[in-house]
Amino acid sequence: MLFRFIDDFLFISTCKKQAARFFSRLQRGFREYNCYMNQEKCGLNFDIDQISGITSNRVHMGDDGITFLRWCGLFINCCTLEVQADYTR
User: Fold this and answer.
1) pLDDT tens readout for residues 23-60
2) pTM of the model
3) Which of 19, 20, 68, 80 is placed for a possible disulfide with 75 were both Cys, Cβ 3.0 to 4.6 Å?
4) Buried b / exposed e along 42-74 (16+ C-beta atoms within 10 A)
5) pLDDT reading at 19 higher than 70
6) Residue 51's closest CA among 15, 14, 19?
7) What whole-number distance in Å separates Cα of residue 33 and Cα of residue 23?
8) Where are any strands of DSSP class E within 1-89?
9) Percent of the chain clearing pLDDT 70 (strictly above)
10) Average pLDDT over residues 66-71
11) What is the CB neighbour count within 10 angstroms for residue 83?
12) Rounded CA gap, 51 and 49, in Å?
């Protein structure tokens, strides 16, 4: 599932291979449109084996050990996909 809000994208998949391919395509960019991914704003909740040097500042771990992905002022629970407001900032 692909969500878009202005220039922010959120891709959710149960297939790690599919998510890794989507991320790889975004990382290459779209030269004909002068469109490139800002790696400082990128977030992943999984490791991509073949891509090194990617660190995500978009994943937040709650006090209870539950991980959330930050997106557009929201927290998205990485396990249940529940959405809540991000009041940490």
Assistant:
1) 888 888 899 999 888 877 777 777 665 554 555 667 78
2) 0.69
3) 68
4) eebeeeeeeeeeeeeeeebeeeeeeebbbbeee
5) yes
6) 19
7) 18
8) 2-5, 8-11, 59-61, 67-71, 74-77, 83-85
9) 88
10) 87
11) 12
12) 6
Tokens of 44: 């992943």
In contact, 45 and 55? CB cutoff 8 Å: no
Give me the amino acid identity at 17.
K
Which residue did the predictor score with more confidence, 51 or 69? 69
Q: Residue 3 pLDDT > 60, yes or no?
A: yes
**How far is Cα of residue 13 from the mean position of the Cα atoms in its chain?**
11
| Ordered alpha helix ranges (H), the chain | 16-28
Residue ranges per structural domain of the chain:
2-85
**Identity of the amino acid at 50:** Q
